[in-house]
Amino acid sequence: MNDIVLQGPALDDAAAAAWQSRAQATGRRQLAPGVWRLSDAAAGPDFADPALAAGLDVFRIDRPLRREDFRVLAMDMDSTLITIECIDEIADLAGRKPEVAAVTAAAMRGELDFAGSLRRRVALLEGLPADALQRVYDERLRLSPGAEALLATARAAGWTTVLVSGGFEFFTDRLKARLGLDHTLANTLEIVEGRLTGRVLGTIVDADGKAARVRQACEALGCGPGRAVVIGDGANDLKMMAGAGLSVAYHAKPVVRAQASIAVVHGGLDAVRWRFED
What's domain 1-63's architecture? Predict the structure, then answer.
């Protein structure tokens, strides 16, 4: 099988026909508005570059995947399920966003040890009133486009949903209640007398911790991680994505896109649905 799924808001029949010709595909089928499947494509790996440059997402279909063959949907939180990096927005309220955001970006690119970088960033929040967390949740946190549609698909398929984050449980707890998620894992900020102390309590949730939590969720269902869909954007997501039946790089760093099964570069989280068979 060498089919290709193309997705983009302006992808009408005429445009799909042009891409079909470019991919040397034998046929095309519309899956939804702006979503087309090209069958038996002969295009090489470089086909994706012009498609991405044209604002399209490209999934190569090398094997069929059925929703019923999966049991778990695991996702990162910051810049994946939600559009922001929570720690950067907290830091903004402390007047330290540029300093913290630079460390966040380096950690997500895999240039820094995650646990050490998190301690460095949290230390810069010392003394900030704890109600800043609620302000970030209320005023700045937004779900990524397509998040609720993807979760509806997961519920309909009977998947267990797991939110695993190197961020903070203040936010994962609220998202769990809001979205009906089954499990969450995140770090705990120490708060004393209504202010952040600049420390994280307990063991920091890093790449190993994320991967272990995904394995636990699968084991509880009597399956392996090969029956999990795992979505992330940063280097600390790579270990939990490595053993997944479908790993998805969502608006991700290049190091993550290079190792994922598929990459969503332009669209929303609901784009993942089109990797599965009808």
Answer: 2-Layer Sandwich (3.30)
